[in-house]
Write a structure and sequence with these properties.
- It holds the Pfam family Rhodanese.
- Residues 8-89 form the Rhodanese domain.
- This protein has helices at 3-8, 20-24, 43-49, 61-72, 84-90; strands spanning 13-16, 32-33, 53-57, 78-83.
- By secondary structure, the protein is an alpha/beta fold.
- The protein has a single domain (3-92), classed as Oxidized Rhodanese, domain 1 (3-Layer(aba) Sandwich).
- It has a 4-stranded parallel sheet, sandwiched between helices.
- α4 (61-72) links the parallel β3 and β4 (78-83).
- The longest helix is centred in the last third of the chain and has 12 residues, at 61-72.
- The chain starts with a helix and ends with a helix.
């Protein structure tokens, strides 16, 4: 399954790793906010869902860091969509 198919999957969990303030200013529909600074402490929450997890941020840098951290902590079905614009493009919303 490629990233576009994963993004289109209704079971996918979208995680915005930006700050709470950035999230409050606007976010991907249905996304949950787990700032990068909290991502390692909430890995079990993500593992428990058993759904694909797609990370994003503003430019893709923080989501890439979160991706590597979650992979190191054993989360297998995690993907980095990059920035918000990239995610909207994958979802055909822009």
């Amino acid at each position: 399954m490629n990233l576009k198919e994963i993004v289109q999957n209704p079971q996918t969990t979208f995680v915005d790793v930006r700050s709470r303030e950035e999230f409050a200013d606007g976010h991907f529909p249905g996304a949950k906010n787990i700032p990068l600074s909290e991502i390692t402490s909430r890995v079990e929450e993500l593992k428990a869902s058993n759904n694909p997890v797609v990370l994003y941020c503003r430019s893709g840098a923080r989501s890439m860091n979160a991706y590597f951290l979650l992979k190191q902590l054993g989360l297998e079905n995690v993907h980095n969509a990059g920035g918000m614009y990239d995610l909207l493009t994958l979802k055909n919303l822009n």
